[in-house]
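Support case: NAP complex. Customer-provided input:
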Amino acid sequence: MAPGSHPPKTSREIRLKRYPPGMPTRDDFDLVEVTLPDLADGQMVVRNIAMSVDPYMRGRMTGARDSYVPPFELGQPLLGEAVGQVVASRDGTYPVGAYVTSMLGWREAFVAAGDQLSPVDGKAAPLTAYLGVLGMPGHTAYGGLLRYGQPKRGQTVFVSGAAGAVGSVVCQVAKIKGCQVIGSAGGPEKTKWLKEVAGVDHVIDYKAVSDLGAELKRLAPDGIDIYFENVGGAHLEAALDNMKVHGRIIMCGMIGAYNARTPGPPNLMRIVRRRLTVQGILFLDLQDMGPDFELDMPRWIAEGRVKWHETVFEGIEKAPDAFLGLFNGANLGKMIVRLGPDK
Ligand SMILES: NC(=O)c1ccc[n+]([C@@H]2O[C@H](COP(=O)([O-])OP(=O)(O)OC[C@H]3O[C@@H](n4cnc5c(N)ncnc54)[C@H](OP(=O)(O)O)[C@@H]3O)[C@@H](O)[C@H]2O)c1
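Agent response - structure generated as follows:
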């Protein structure tokens, strides 16, 4: 057993009560206490230290089965990335004290077999970073930009959702590649962080400008080479109006459209006239870039070339609030729910 910690006998978890038709509310979630089963051979008890909430989870809170991931099951605990510590073990691979990541978030503790866990050493950064800059969002940003954006020195990159988990890494990787970066985010705290900490060249507070397209034109009079899309709606419309001929648009997500059916931008014809390449991306397709990502990102962090920020909600009961906060901009950097101390 890890020093100072006792294997829990119970765990609290968040379950989905119903599929929300529009913007989810607190009432769509239940907090339930469960008794953990006794350990069988090859099993471990893992105490979660922190869990992630991510925009993609909204796509699983629907009965529709047209996505690349299946819907969450009603009345069952939600699933998602988490980092935790083994606190009891009947398995040789993961001894007591080992740190692990899993897809078994949204709960305080769980019993699992080794094939549901991955080891994490926590050497490059605090454990929560493995849910953000060193985890799925960072990997998506790195792989999406480098593979499909092919950024070159001197090119202009526009990033929406720039102060979020993915966007903040895209901005900084583009800077490392020698690009001019324009980031868009909502509110002065986010724009200040992007400029002063992340070193973004030009920052737009999209909530404070009346004409996003005109602002982009002012900041990039010769046009945009690469647009990294996280948001959709007015951002996509403004980017399309300002793309260079043969520019590239990387469609990572459209969070502005996750809770409502919104019409697409009226200027899609720009894709034809400007001969743009538009590429949808998925983290799962970028797995082959894992070894490069795992070399580059810890090094860039150690060199101070990539910075990250976390917004932390405390306690499993706050997980729905943290999730809902993604849709009103409550997070600067990665949204994290802390469930217990690191050690
Ligand atoms: N394709 C993939 O494999 C993959 C993997 C990871 C993430 N993604 C996508 O990447 C995007 C960013 O994800 P993330 O994890 O980094 O989230 P995030 O940016 O850390 O958090 C969401 C942010 O989106 C912004 N936002 C929310 N509603 C908005 C709206 N209606 N209009 C404009 N901005 C809005 C808010 O920032 P502001 O305060 O700045 O508005 C909010 O803080 C999402 O679209 C997500 O689905 C895709």
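The mean pLDDT is 95.

Case will auto-close in a few days if no follow-up is received.
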